[in-house]
Amino acid sequence: MTTNTQDTRDTTSTLSESPARRVRGRQERRLAALALLGGIAVLGAWLPSAAAQTRGKPKKGAKPAPTAVVTASAVASASAAPASSAVPLTGPVPAPHAEAGDGGVRPSPLNPNADEMPGYIAPGGSAAPPVAVDYDKLLGDIAALRARVADVGDALFVSRIVLSLETDGDHAKIGHLTIELDDGVVYTAPANFRGSDPTTVYEHAVAPGHHAITVEVDRKDDRDDTFRDTQRTRFIVDVPKDRRLGVTLRIDDDSNMAANFPSDHRGSYDLRVRMKAAASPVKR
Amino acid sequence: MRGLASQRYWLVGLGALILCASPRALAQKSAPPASAPAAPIVAAPAAAPPTAPLPAASPTHGELLRAYHEALARRRLGSQEQLTGDDVHDRLAEVEDLQRAGRTDEAIARMAEIVEHPKFDPYTDTEDGLAAVWLLGDALASAGAYEPARAYLRRLVSQPAAWQAPATFARRAVRRLVEIGVEADDAKSAVQDLANIPASAPEETRGDIAYVTGRAREDAGDPDGAMSAYASVARSSRFWAQATYLRGLILVERRRFKEGEELFCKIADPGRKDRTSATFGDEHYFAIRDLARLALGRVAHEQYRFDDSRYYYYLVPRDSDRLAEALYEAATSRYEKKDYAGARDLLDELSALAATAGHHRYEDEAWILGAYVDLAQCKFEDADKKLLAFLARYAPVRDGARRIAESDAAMRGVLVAARTGSDAGGAEVVGTVVSAETMRAIAALVRVDPAYGSIVRRRAVLEREVSGLRAALGEIVDIQQGLATNGGVRPAVELARNDAAEAESARHAIDTTRHALDELDAAHASQERTAPLRAQLALLDTRLAQAKQVASATLHATEQTGVDLPDLLRADAAHGNDLASRVDAVRASLATEETRLARDALHRLDLRLSRLLRRARLGRVESVLGRKRTLEVEIEAINDGVIPKSALDSLDAARYLRDNEEYWPFEGDDWPDEFVGSEVPK
Hey, are the CB atoms on A19 and B637 less than 8 Å from each other? Predict the structure, then answer.
């Protein structure tokens, strides 16, 4: 209902500015002249303050003083408000009065409704209840347990594993990259990781024997993000007793889907995860 | 018009949301005890002993680590050498390197090893000792483990000599505690942690405490208390801009516009250069400054001071993330002022911005506003074209948003793209019914509640820690077997069977199948055929949960107590399994909340686009009426003897030329004696 009223007003107002104004009857012209005189009077009241404002694209340095509340009230009082309704400079400020018609305001047709705002609670409704979980305590417990186990493992095992990572590919963008050791993530690469030289990402004491290293990489093309591929590669390594196993993981990308497929309808993904390992005696 | 006012408050309030961007949804309230999960689907074995075999631990769990050290020492395992000051110093350097490389988990393990070592006690009060405790707290906080992090940092601020000059680590600990309070949206806990800081603490420290106190008072619904706390944040504090801005928001909410504006002006002072400031600030300072300028514009706009608002919006710099917002709102204010040319210029600027930076979150509203500016300028043809194009462009986007809201996975994909700024065109969507371009438009337009980002971050942290927990449990098994075989070598990976991995694999398979069913539904597959599949999937889900419960109960049955190394390991293995079972409940709660917020964001987008589409249709009606009225005016003018411009144009000969013809109009020079070609002179 409100919307319809608004639309009608908009339409009327729009048409009042059309060329029809020139050909209206005499009576209308007289009315327009009267309105013009009224407008001049209002403009007279507005001018002293308006002179301090900028027009169009304002220039820097012409900052209006924050006393403009008084300006707004002056406009309001010039048009309608009685002199006794002067706005105090401090304390709550009453809502300003907007003038209707040509000298006033045309409200935007796009003011959003309250229910389009985040966190809106309908009248009579209530906010969603908080999730009853002890998240912080759980995370603290897990972190402490992990630190304890890592500490004891370091004390007991002499054998060590060192994981290094290297990436190559001109247009490859790493969306997501994790390295797992025995099914637990030990490294998560930051967004858009690039490692042109081998970078050590994990080093820890482990039990001698077989261990699984899993690399999960989600790769995107910097020419078109929609072309992406995900690969999960699992390597089994054998960590000898009392040795330090250096594992270098290299991710090569030579894909050309994003470059060729949109135009030629031909292309290929070529993502390879390679690993090389070398054991050396542990320095005691 | 008053509705307009309240809506604009909302816009100002959105700025506050950016600052207070973390949900209370996960506050530590009424957490169920770890040993009391939801009602089990099947009864656990009756012989299951009680959990938590170890004594109640402190937040740092340091006593458990010390128990390990003592057990290792009794067995003469681990390093038997004395801990020297150089060792501590070297370890500090090592851990700092690890943190710089993003290897936070290793940093925590390396630092906890030394800080909780019995031989560390002589170094507790030394500079390196304090640095070690601070580094451990910082690393834990970086990993999202706020509870132990706060416990270590509290230790630094409550030491007897903590506040003797220069009090370096006490000050750093206060800074970190305040940051944790803000990040975790738990200012109240931060205030409690900092309750005993002496009044003689440095001004910078007092500023931090005052700011977090103000946040806590606001959370508690006490704006007066918050105002007074914010007012005591000195200009030399890094939180001065935030505190001043929040004070301004409180005043504006109370309609004390002038005072609020004065505060915003302090931050937005255009006399400062773009890249320098006379105040101290953290990395958010320039974002706050832009917010303050927007707030000034909105307050002026609210009071119909359109020229002031235009000026303030203009102050938002071109490299600001808020530029689109400022341009759109400035265009709106010019439209309301009836300065249509000004509104058009600003909308053109906004279009140019979109041409260089791609989609922006106001593109739909700017499109409609542009059409309405045309209507106001009586450019009915142009307006109609724009409105038609809008309907053709955004009706599918609205429908796409509705379709995406039907699938949790697709919804999350789009919102992650919207939040992180990645390309939504490549996000996983429901089949192929939603085009990549529509996905990008949705991701650009959807306004994600800041709480959603916080939930997503928490889920990511939880998943990372759970994965680490899995590795830790595997390592415990390795250690136990190493002890049992007296150091013998054995395969550390059982390739044949790994319960945790298999459970994860089964979970993944169930999720994939559910996703496939969502796709079938989205493609309007027959419900009769998909419903049985869904029922079977639910059954499998239930069986998986039952299997996990049975496995957990079996593991609990092996718990023992004691202080020797194997006993401690057994206790930790049981504790780890208990944590793993608690993770499911937390994960489910987070997923539920994430889905609710995601659905809410898409619902709000649906509401907005529906409103704009309705507005576009109404605009078309106006354009038709306008054209009709234009014709009427022309007819009236012709009746009055005034020929309209279009009629004059119709007499123009140039309009009727073909492409290969030229017309040279008579330009007024007439030379009667000129000889032309073969003319015969008269």
Answer: yes
Asked whether residue B117 carries a pLDDT value surpassing 80, the answer given is yes
Q: How far apart are CA B41 and CA B52, in angstroms?
A: 23
Closest CA in chain B for residue A91: B256
What is the least distance, in Å, from the CA of B331 to any CA of chain A?
10
Which is higher by pLDDT, B377 or B16? B377
d(CA B146, CA B457): 14
Range in A141-155, A223-237, B239-253 with the lowest mean pLDDT: A223-237
Q: Report d(CA B60, CA B251) in Å as an integer.
A: 42
Which member of A3, A17, A226 has the closest CB to residue B425?
A: A226
Within a domain: residue A263? yes
Specify the amino acid at residue B284: H
Distance (Å, whole) CA B203 – CA B608: 47
Q: How many CB pairs under 8 A join A and B?
A: 409
Q: For tokens 């689907």, what's the residue?
A: B41
Q: Average pLDDT over chain B, rounded to whole? A: 79
* Residue A97 and residue A211 in one domain: no
Of B314, B284, B317, B285, which is closest to residue B300 (Cα–Cα)? B314
CB nearest A145 (choices: B255, B314, B575): B575
Q: What is the pLDDT of residues B578-590, one digit of tens each?
A: 888 888 888 888 8
Q: Residue A257: give the domain boundaries.
A: 135-281
What Rg value do the Cα atoms of chain B yield, rounded? 34
Tell if the CB–CB gap between B607 and A113 is shorter than 8 Å: yes
Q: What is the ipTM metric for this complex?
A: 0.70
| Smallest Cα distance from A84 to chain B, Å | 20
Q: Express each pLDDT in B425-440 by its tens digit.
A: 655 554 546 777 777 7
Contacts of B1 in chain A (CB under 8 A): 98, 105, 107
pTM for the model stands at 0.70
Whose CA is closest to B595, among B422, B449, B434, B433?
B449
3-state class (DSSP) for residue B83? coil
Considering the domain boundaries, does residue A123 fall inside one?
no
Angle at B140 between CA B137 and CA B142, to 5 degrees: 110
- Are A70 and A186 in a shared domain? no
